[in-house]
Write the structure tokens for this entry.
Amino acid sequence: MKALSVWQPWALLLVTGHKRIETRPWPAPNGLIGQEVAIASCKNLRTEQRVAYAAPDFQVHYAATGLPPLAELPRGAVIGKTKLLDCKLMTDELIARIPDRERAFGIYAPGRFAWFMGEPIRFNNPVPASGRLGLWDWDHEQVRAFEGKSVQI
């Protein structure tokens, strides 16, 4: 299974279904459309992620989810999976149709890519993993071992 490393709390937002669009500067591979993708939470936090998390618009929408604060979120682990439904090049027209909450949870600008996600599953127990930039292969044995310990949200 392919895995995607995502900073917290955006990783948790994806696997709980509060975030339906992952924004990237590169397109998803066509062969990945319709496939499940493991979501790995990055181990460290950069200043830019802390600044984005502290932004008032983000905080308003994040508080409405009822999810725990950043300091309590698991890092350095696969925390769930979601299905990649589609990938679209962002245009002004596409961005205008994105709800405010979703826009608060991503970087929306023409020329970037919107990865539309669905069918989120959050694992009850995060699976320790060393993530990488971009897409990477997550060990299928780990997938099988933890699939029975997941809960659909």
